[in-house]
Amino acid sequence: MALILENISLAIERNLILEQISFEVPIGQVLVILGNSGAGKSKLLEVVAGLIGNQSGKIIFGEEDLSQLTPQARKIGFVFQDYALFPHMTAAKNILFGLKSRQAPTTEQKRWLKLVAAELKIDHLLSRFPAELSGGQQQRVALARCMVLRPEILLLDEPLSALDAASRERLVMLMKKIQKKYRVTMLYVTHDHNEARFMGDQIMVVDQGRVIQTGPPEEIFARPVSRFVAHFTATRNILPGRIQEHLEAGQALVEVAGSLLLSTSCQVASQDVWVCIRPEHFSFVDETASASPISSISDDPVAAESAQTTDNIISGYRISQILPQSGATVLIELMNRGARLLVFASNRRVVEQNLNVGSQVEILVAAEHVHCLPRQPDDIYCRPE
Amino acid sequence: MKVSRFSALVTVIVLVAGLFFGSPFVALLKSFTVADGFSALLNYQVLAVVGTSLLTALAATGLAAVVGTVLGYYFTFHKQTGSRWLKTFFSLPLVLPPSAAGYMLLLAFGRYGLIGAPLYQTFSVQIMFTLTALVLAQFFVVMPLMMQAASSAFQQVPGSLVKASHSLGADEYTTFIKVLLPLSRPVLVAGVITAFARALGEFGATMMVAGRLKTIPIMIYVKAMGGDAGVADGLSLLLVLLSFMILLLVNFIGEKR
User: Fold this and answer.
1) Chain B hits for A98, Cβ within 8 Å
2) Which residues, 6 or more positions from A65, have their beta carbon under 8 angstroms from its beta carbon?
3) B23/B51 same-domain check
4) How many CB atoms are located within 10 Å of the residue A376 CB?
């Protein structure tokens, strides 16, 4: 059983908004749709909900062809970015709107209101109007309004993007909990890679109405298929490189930023590549510690090749800036004659290893975390962040 | 302090405009005498005209409220190719000279008219020169006002509210009644009030189809031309006061939103 979209295309006034979108979400799982604004994400949700009806292709849920049903008959909940609460109704009236439209008995209405309000911790807000609620509270009410109808599918269109960081954290955890508890199939639209990684069983990256890559979060983040995906999943280091030697299946020696690195994620035929390394995958060589079991591949490529997880050593870089991040980490900018690397480190590591602006450092990155993408030889422009 | 030329010019224009727009009101007040005015108004014939006016304006407004709201809804939510042209067409009476509108109504609904002739021949129904004709003429002129008020009212309701309503299982009718109408009520009410004021004051189109019937504006015209200042003064003042109160009411509704 699954929610299946087959070749969904949509044109509005001759503009192609969605192009041949297909995917399959097993029932009770979450598919995150990740992309820029204007990529067609919201329109895709509206097509699934039946709010736009002139698409081609098929929408199947279980045994049922949803595209034949009116939006009212689809058992789909829709959570909007602007909450879309009815401003002239109290929170309770908003939540009961769907049950009333379906003419549910009053006792059932009361029971579900109580249950869902308790679950979403909004019991004390029920008599208030939307204007008297904070953004986070409004989105809880909007979520409750969907959940009382026990939807089989829940569509969320950037539900957190209008909220402050603290409410966002609370709400994303709450949504995950509810999704797990009710095993509701979810399509979750966002442009935030952290939200995507947290919520998604699968992530689908879309750009200009087309699917660029679909897969589990680990795969999308570790093995982006294009620079767009790499960029969008916050792979901060996307550097032009050249393959020096193709080794066995998917392994290669790559020259990048003045160093020679072993990559075990290099299914590329061309010589010229983009080398993607996520900033959290670097670590600093601790000079104060005793000799560590590191083989420098530039000294002994053959030995490196045989090892399962091989650390590459990159040296010659100086710390040029240290930028504090949330959550006890810093982003460190390293420079080496024009080449630039961005590296995450914990505050503790910075203190312990005495990392300061101007210090000369050596850093490590495992060969499996050096990911190559094909590159046109003359294309060396790195997209600025 | 040196006054700039521009602000001096603005002041002059404001003053001249004040004089020009104020003078008719002052003149009316000067011409109106309480004794004459009231005795003229409390005449059976004049009261009948006031009654006719209120009755037909109310009926025309009622019709316009329903039809204008439906058309406003249609042009906001059922846009199709060509619906912009259609909306422009329905708005035409707003700018059409009312006498032309009245003449065209005559052509359509007169005893020998396009629709009037078959109506008369088959049902012996005559529309022209009856109260119905007055209502239709006022409705014709006033409906576009209501339609425009309604479509701007519906347009300002966020689209996500309508989508939310549909996705929660409400059909189009329920969404209209439960979501759209309550959220656009102030603008709709203001539209209805404005339409009523306009219907009450309608002269050109009404005149063309009235025959021997009279509404307040027609009566003012007839009496002013005939030299019966008492009735013309009284009725004019009545309309001025009504219009003023209606404007106040509309502004009040506007501020409450």
Assistant:
1) 168-170
2) A58, A59
3) no
4) 9
Inter-chain touch B158–A97, beta carbons under 8 Å: no
Tell whether B77 and B46 lie within a shared domain: yes
Q: Which residues of A fall within a CB distance of 8 Å from B164? A: 78, 80, 84-86, 142, 145
Predicted TM-score of the model (pTM): 0.84
Q: Quote the minimal CA–CA distance from B82 to chain A in Å.
A: 14
> Is residue B69 domain-shared with residue B131, that is, in the same domain?
yes
| Residue B182 contacts A where some CB pair is shorter than 8 Å | yes
Q: A27 and A1 in contact (C-beta within 8 Å)?
A: yes
What tens digit of pLDDT does each residue of A13-39 get? 888 999 999 999 999 999 999 998 888
Question: CA angle, corner B54, sides to B51 and B57, nearest 5?
Answer: 140
Interchain CB contact of A369 with B (< 8 Å): no
Query: Dmax of chain A from CA atoms?
Result: 77
Chain A residues within 8 A of B169 when measuring between CB atoms: 72, 98, 101-102, 149
Closest CA of chain A from B208, distance in Å: 45
Tokens of A15: 């503009």
Verify that B150 and B122 share a domain, yes or no: yes
Residue A362 burial class via C-beta count within 10 angstroms: exposed 0-12, middle 13-18, buried 19 and up:
middle
Structure tokens at A122: 């909004």
Distance of alpha carbon B148 from alpha carbon B136, whole angstroms: 19
Tell me the pLDDT tens digit for each residue of A285-307: 876 554 444 444 444 444 444 44
Domains in chain B, number: 2
- CATH for B106: 1.10.3720.10
The interface predicted TM-score (ipTM) is 0.83
